[in-house]
Amino acid sequence: MLRRDFLKYSAAGAGLLLAGPRVAFAAPGVLDIFFNSDTNVIDFWTQVVKPGFEAAHSGVTLNLVPGGGGSGINTLADRAYAAFQAKKDPQVDILEAAYPFYPAGSLEAGLWVDFSKSGLANYDKVNPVVVQSPALLPYRGSQVVLMYNSDKVKDVPTTFADLAKWIKANPGQFTYSRPDLGDSGACFIERALQEVTGQKPELFLPDNYTEGYAKPMFEKLWPLLKDIQPSLFNGGEYTSGNTASIQLLASGAVTMTVAWSDMALQAMSQGVVPDTTAVAQLQDLAFTGGFSGIIVPSVAGNKDTALKLADYLVSPEVQNHVVTDLGGFPGIKWEFLSKELQDKFAKVAPKSIPVFPGNWEPALFEAWYRNVASDIKR
Amino acid sequence: MSAAAMSLRNGWRGLAFIAIPVTAIAIFLFYPAALSIIGTLVRPKDGGGYTFSLQSYVFFFTDSYSLTNLGRTLWTTVVTLILLIAVNLPIALYMRFTKGPLASVIQALALFPMFVPGIIICYALIRYMGPNGWLQSLLNLVGFHHYASPHLTPWGPVIGLIWDGMPLTLLILISGLSNISDASIEAARDVGAGRLRILVSIITPEITHSLLIVSALNFLGIFGQALMPFMLGPTNPEMMGPFMLRTFSSVRDPLQASTQATITFLICSLAGIAYVRSISRRPKEDRT
Known about the structure:
The structure holds 2 protein chains of 2 kinds. Chain A is an alpha/beta fold.
């Protein structure tokens, strides 16, 4: 390249860099989608959702952006709320795996689009069991399972009480992740909470958390968790996330842990864990699962296109891929999936997945750190 | 043009040069930091208006959980700092007084961590020193079976932070040592000083500044660290970095998180003051 050309192009490049973000945001056909989920989900969008949607809607481009974890997504939600109050375009079209309950008051103020009233053609197909709020469109689910080495565990526990007994009978062979760092650990604690309160998931609802209501139940939980703590890995140590738990299982440092079904299946199919690894679910009351959904700010610049994408996301076409490509549960009722998948998953398709409401979690996790983790003896 | 006017004009020109970075710092650093600090002291009152309150600080300093975390952070910082200097000073001395290919290799090795991102180091360290990791397997091979992995113990982040802090520490110590003239050392040798005497009486006084700078900069870097303690450290006690992050994003308590941040900031500013004093005193001494 001639030197003059080089200068010309680099000047143009610098100009683009400066103007770039603004141009991209202002472009009508570019949907800005921010992800809270891990890279396997972004891969799924890149390979399935993006090509399918862009082919059907010419001139539309999906801009898939990793959102930088919970606090990053919260910052974007804050930005959307501020823009909403100022009646401006927040430059956020969709937040993935986020909840419409943050920032406090935003749902009531009308920041998030109500999908039930947005005329989505496929909305009737969505499984009502997994809808936490009409402003949150669930499109993929997964469930926490026991992940263990079947070489060493011949009789896998089928109830939570048996699991607690197994943990104490096999000191150092089990661990779960810190609840704020890995949802698999959070679900373990939540299942334990359901255990000490008589296996009644209906006690925990998105709108019934108060300190006075929750505290007596939490008080029953701590003795159970403290009781098994000395029998956990390394005398009471918790991993720093979902992947870290699977790593400990892979290195043989523990024999059993809890993991997300999709991550467990992926680890097994990629061979990062020993061949003898297996998964199991509790039979008395399953571990809580979770559904990830999308939320759309009502002031989003590309709201109409975002809603078209939302409709596409809960179409049987994409939902079939959620099961086959992502190892997840569909957000729509199983009867709308392909016949082949219905037959294949007839036995494991859960009738209901206990969901633990997200707004109970901040208080539960903080109390766990103060009551359980601070009690580790060294 | 008089000399005074000239120097005045240069002064303005100098100010113009620093205006952009100073403004940027003021807008992007001082202003939000001040907002956040003021926010911990001045709270909105029920029914409108504002009131001055130290409540969040009272909570922090009466809460044994928070204090334990602060104590753990200080412990990790001090232990890491001592070990960093203990490891790097001999290497720096070796490299000051040795020339040749071996010294170059050692220098390259010691500076290598600078080019590896922290998160990669964390995962590599977990694989290496974690339970049933390479180190344990190697030790087993030579018949040592009592390895207790430092992963997820307070020593985990110490090891990670030493890895991370080595290049900077070494570079500063080497630059400090290079200021010592060969002549002064030879002079000492001529009058019969032994190696230890040279180290204590000639070298140590010359590198006190470098040691101060190394300590202050590493203190700042280690005290607020979030990644290493959170990847390699125990669940509890937490270091201030992960504690602040968790309070902000998981507990969703921005007030307490900014209180923790302000306390961290105040402690770090002590190291900052030591650093600034140390570099601002330097030129005066050089002039004398």
